[in-house]
Amino acid sequence: MSSLQGYVDRRVLVILQDGRAIVGVMAGFDQKSNVVLSDSKERVYSMEEGVEEIPLGLYLVKGDMIILIGELDETVDQAVDLASIRAEPILPIRY
């Protein structure tokens, strides 16, 4: 749990069990690893089009839905042309 403390007030990428990729600034978390993201956007990947970013604003993610949280280097992330990226969407996790 204390490992999430280092991500507060930093831009992170969160991958969810249903395959969604959400980018936002981690505003906080609780003891169940529920995460609050501010200024968040969902990145939708496609082989036909570039990456689409859907604004979500303030977003709460349940801890049991999270697969991965990683800090983004903002300068590198801003330098990437998302419209030129073609990728298969992430498949949902199946148990």
TrEMBL record:
Family matches, as InterPro entries: Lsm8 (IPR034103), LSM_dom_sf (IPR010920), PTHR15588 (IPR044642), Sm (IPR047575), Sm_dom_euk/arc (IPR001163)
The compartments listed are:
Nucleus
Q: What is its main location?
A: nucleus
Assembly description: LSm subunits form a heteromer with a doughnut shape.
Keywords assigned? mRNA processing, mRNA splicing, Nucleus, Ribonucleoprotein, RNA-binding, Spliceosome
- What does the sequence similarity comment in the record state about its family? Belongs to the snRNP Sm proteins family.
Q: Name one GO biological process term.
A: mRNA splicing, via spliceosome
Protein's UniProt name:
LSM2-LSM8 complex subunit LSM8
Residue stretches making up the Sm domain = 1-75
